[in-house]
Write a structure and sequence with these properties.
alpha+beta, Aminopeptidase, single chain, about 25% helix
Length: about 160
């Protein structure tokens, strides 16, 4: 039902219109915010989640120095800023995208052997999503922008 692909300029208009609920905004960035950081950092790769060729979700894969503090594994990739636009939520798009992500990463980043991410401890829905996909709690805690985060990982 969904595909994931690298961001293309033709996705920009729809990504700029993404909306999240008020309670989701503290936990992630909107695509337009994340894309600005991608333009400034060559180690960030913007990824779009498509349903029927229309963007419904977005996240960033971050490599290199940006993963320090999340893992000591230099061959890991960090998942950042996952969001599903408000009208597309609750349809399983995030779950489908995260289930297909290991195959995507192996294809496009063959040296990567682990995916990592940080989940705010108050973001129960995100934690449940990542656990369903097979992410494991590393036991590492860190302080995020709005509070404590748990670091999760998935070996590839």
């Amino acid at each position: 039902m969904v595909d994931i692909c690298f961001y293309q300029p033709e996705h920009q208009d729809i990504l700029n219109q993404f909306q999240l609920s008020e309670n989701q905004l503290p936990f992630t960035e909107l695509p337009r915010q994340a894309l600005m950081k991608c333009h400034q950092d060559s180690e960030r790769y913007p990824i779009v989640i498509l349903h029927k060729n229309e963007p419904v979700g977005f996240f960033v894969l971050h490599m290199g120095n940006g993963i320090r503090g999340y893992t000591d594994n230099a061959r890991a990739v960090l998942i950042r800023a996952l969001s599903i636009t408000r009208h597309a939520q609750g349809k399983g798009f995030a779950l489908q995208a995260m289930k297909s992500l290991p195959t995507f990463v192996r294809k496009h980043f063959p040296t990567v052997n682990e995916m990592v991410l940080a989940v705010n401890e108050d973001n129960v829905a995100a934690e449940q999503l990542y656990r369903k996909v097979g992410f494991l709690d590393s036991g590492l805690k860190r302080e995020g922008p709005i509070g404590a985060q748990s670091v999760f990982y998935l070996p590839l």
